[in-house]
Design brief:
Blueprint: E1 3-8, E2 13-15, H1 20-31, E3 37-40, E4 43-46, H2 47-58, E5 63-68, H3 74-85, E6 90-95, H4 96-103, E7 110-115, E8 118-122, E9 131-134, H5 139-150, E10 155-160, H6 167-180, E11 184-189, H7 190-203, E12 233-235, E13 247-252, E14 255-260, E15 264-268, E16 276-280, E17 288-295, H8 302-313, E18 321-330, E19 333-342, E20 345-354, E21 357-366, H9 374-383, E22 385-386, H10 387-391
Parallel strand pairs: 1-5, 5-6, 7-10, 10-11
Antiparallel strand pairs: 1-2, 3-4, 7-8, 8-9, 9-13, 12-17, 13-14, 14-22, 15-16, 17-21, 18-19, 19-20, 20-21
Length: about 400
């Protein structure tokens, strides 16, 4: 079965079969990937239709192997995967971090992806959210931080995606730092990634993704449960003292938040509640900070956010959500605050507006033990930001009934 490999994003789309027709559609499709419609030649055009037309020009055969950025949201990946499925019979989707492992000469311990505004670090197996270093400051500082997070001598793959400004220069700085501490470095670009993907696709028949992102608009958000298809981040803490280990930035979906560098994140897609990410403390699983997100209409006010949350809470049993304050504060930030009562623990929620995103941070602790999470919660609340605002680029958009 003929298979076409396609590297999708973050800035360009490159396929083993080139097409001038697709080249005209791709910029608009990438720019609008977080939206249902874009304006093209003064007319509204469905983004899904743009992607289908682009894949119609790019795909040749019965199957496609798509490779997407590791830090893209599930909704973005679902958008391109569904469009490809409308063109070919079978589609395999993988994140760049997994594909880069296959493209490397030797199995790497760390994969580094350079994107506009950020650098994402993943460690195989790559089923956890990537750690993120902001590129907002000066490049040598970003390179130093990447080398620190890589954690000493190791085999590292540096991914320089096409179209990312400053990627060759920053990649060289990171490689220098890593080699100075004894790491073996392999630099991979889109061409090498595409060739490796094409060889891999030819050797193994494509299959559906093990977990297909869920689709569909859902009811308004009630804090405490992330929406199906939403990308969220979670932090778990076991002490009220400031973390002894250095913090790191964790990005998931549209939100970036500061977390302790040594704690572990995992995505949760089954069980009570909806899809979410949880970062767990090895010492106290009762203590947690959950972070949820949703895109908001331009100009939404905190008062409107409060009314949306208040209405959503009416669908829940009495006594689950209490202490509602539509004009509360989280650290030095204006917020909607309330408490969620669940089992043996409480979750104190702080809902913020930043950029185009409504961010909900839930500080979970055993009943009466909120001091155990206070310090790191305040760090998370203070640092939580819309990644699109920080990076100055289009960030992944969650589709949510959450915040």
């Amino acid at each position: 079965m003929p298979v076409t490999a396609v590297v999708v994003g973050p800035c360009r789309v490159r396929a083993s079969r080139d097409s001038a027709a697709a080249g005209e559609l791709v910029p608009a499709a990438l720019d609008g990937i977080d939206d249902d419609f874009v304006v093209l030649e003064e007319q509204p055009v469905a983004v899904g239709g743009l992607w289908r037309d682009a894949f119609g020009a790019l795909l040749d055969g019965d199957a496609a192997a798509l490779i997407c950025p590791s830090w893209w949201s599930d909704r973005r990946i679902a958008t391109v995967a569904d469009a490809a499925r409308a063109v070919v019979a079978r589609v395999e989707v993988s994140r760049r971090s997994a594909a880069l492992v296959s493209a490397a000469a030797r199995p790497p311990a760390v994969v580094v992806e350079i994107a506009d505004g950020l650098v994402a670090l993943s460690r195989p197996p790559v089923d956890r959210p990537a750690r993120v270093v902001s590129r907002e400051g000066n490049p040598p500082e970003a390179a130093d931080e990447v080398a620190r997070l890589a954690g000493g001598p190791a085999s590292v793959v540096i991914d320089r995606a096409e179209g990312v400004g400053g990627a060759p220069e920053l990649g060289a700085l990171i490689a220098d730092r890593l080699q100075a501490i004894g790491a073996t470095v392999t630099v991979v670009d889109d061409g090498r990634l595409l060739r490796a993907a094409q060889i891999s696709a030819a050797d193994e028949p494509p299959c559906e993704p093990a977990v297909r992102p869920r689709r569909g608009r859902l009811r308004p958000w009630v804090a405490g449960a992330a929406a199906a298809g939403v990308t969220v981040a979670g932090i778990v803490m076991g002490s009220g003292r400031p973390p002894a280990t250095p913090p790191t930035l964790l990005a998931e979906g549209r939100v970036v938040v500061e977390v302790p560098a040594t704690w572990t994140a995992r995505r949760i897609t089954a069980g009570p509640g909806s899809a979410r990410v949880e970062v767990t403390s090895p010492t106290d699983p009762q203590a947690a900070v959950h972070v949820t997100q949703s895109l908001v209409p331009g100009g939404e006010t905190l008062q409107q956010t409060a009314e949306t949350l208040r209405q959503a809470m009416l669908d829940e049993p009495p006594g689950v959500f209490v202490d509602f304050d539509p004009a509360g504060r989280g650290g030095d930030r204006q917020a909607v605050t309330y408490r969620e009562v669940r089992g043996e623990h409480d979750i104190r929620w702080t809902v913020l507006l930043d950029g185009q995103v409504r961010i909900g941070i839930g500080c979970q602790s055993g009943r009466g033990a909120e001091e155990t999470v206070r310090a790191v919660c305040e760090r998370a609340i203070t640092s939580a930001r819309d990644l699109g605002e920080i990076a100055g680029t289009v960030a992944p958009q969650p589709q949510s009934n959450n915040t």
